[in-house]
From TrEMBL, chain A:
One of its GO terms (cellular component) is plasma membrane. This is Sodium:proton antiporter. It comes from Roseicella frigidaeris. One of its GO terms (molecular function) is monoatomic cation transmembrane transporter activity. Keywords: Cell membrane, Membrane, Transmembrane, Transmembrane helix. Belongs to the CPA3 antiporters (TC 2.A.63) subunit E family. It is found in: Cell membrane. It is a multi-pass membrane protein. InterPro entries: Cation_antiport_E (IPR002758).
UniProtKB/TrEMBL annotation, chain B:
InterPro entries: PhaG_MnhG_YufB. This is Na+/H+ antiporter subunit G. Keywords: Membrane, Transmembrane, Transmembrane helix. GO terms for molecular function: sodium:proton antiporter activity. The chain crosses the membrane at residues 50-77. Pfam families: PhaG_MnhG_YufB. It comes from Roseicella frigidaeris.
Length: 161, 97
């Protein structure tokens, strides 16, 4: 809990320094106050959950997201500019591997950065509906691969604090 | 060194502009609303990332550079969330055949 508070407070203060750019004592005092209030709001709105973060897996996830968003941009740009407009839009239902909750929402955010896929909704059977720009792509396999990377980077429940 | 970095930055920013053009082409050419969201979330995100990276060598200091990265991250987050919310509404209004 104390670690989470400190981590969030220093994050908010760094953010303030980046946004404000001032280095006068008065600027810094207001920055500290703002960071303290933001931390309080943050802890109230999103209490720290006991979760074990695996740095190496997070790095792997980060690199994979960067690479995916590069591939996704290139792929979408190519399809948009190709005179034949090679797309075949459609939907795929992908069963969730993650339990409901914040982890699922965070995973959906990441999944929308993947090439050719956009999570749209959750169907009545609890599957994630993914809109694909081209249904000939392995949508389900790629979505599940990201989910596995995400789950490896953030293991909930295995508490330390 | 800094001139070389700035030249590289200009190249990156130009590449970013290309992806904005491609994203806009997709926005106009793609046939349905959900596909048009792909054009916005994928091509434009990459375009903004490249422009932000390209501007880094021109930033006045560490915090100015950090601000560019914060802008990129915030747009990624809000773009990804907004796209999914729009997609959910579109889909509820007109379920696919």
């Amino acid at each position: 809990m104390a670690a989470a508070t400190l981590l969030r407070a220093s994050g908010f203060f760094t953010l303030w320094l980046a946004l404000d750019g001032g280095t006068q004592a008065a600027d810094l005092a207001i920055g500290l106050l703002a960071a303290a209030l933001a931390t309080r709001a943050s802890l109230a709105l999103s209490p720290p959950v006991p979760r074990r973060l695996a740095p190496l897996a997070m790095l792997r996830l980060g690199l994979s997201v960067l690479r995916a968003s590069l591939v996704a941009g290139l792929d979408t740009a190519r399809r948009a500019l190709d005179p034949r407009l090679p797309i075949r839009p459609g939907e795929a239902a992908v069963p969730f591997g993650l339990p409901p909750g914040p982890a699922r929402d965070q995973f959906r955010l990441l999944a929308s950065l993947q090439p050719g896929t956009l999570p749209v909704a959750v169907d009545p059977d609890g599957r994630l509906l993914v809109h694909a720009l081209d249904t000939r792509l392995p949508v389900e396999r790629e979505t599940r691969a990201v989910e596995a990377l995400f789950a490896a980077a953030s293991t909930q429940g295995a508490a330390r604090d | 060194m800094s001139a070389a970095l700035q030249f590289l930055g200009l190249l990156l920013a130009a590449a970013g502009a290309f992806f904005f053009v491609a994203g806009s082409a997709g926005l106009i050419r793609f046939p349905d609303q959900l596909s048009r969201l792909h054009a916005l979330t994928k091509a434009d995100n990459l375009g903004l990332g490249l422009v932000a990276l390209g501007l880094l060598p021109f930033a006045a200091g560490v915090f100015a550079a950090l601000k560019l990265l914060v802008i990129w991250a915030l747009v990624l987050l809000s773009g990804a969330s907004a796209a999914q919310m729009v997609a959910e509404r579109v889909r509820a209004a007109e379920p696919p055949a």
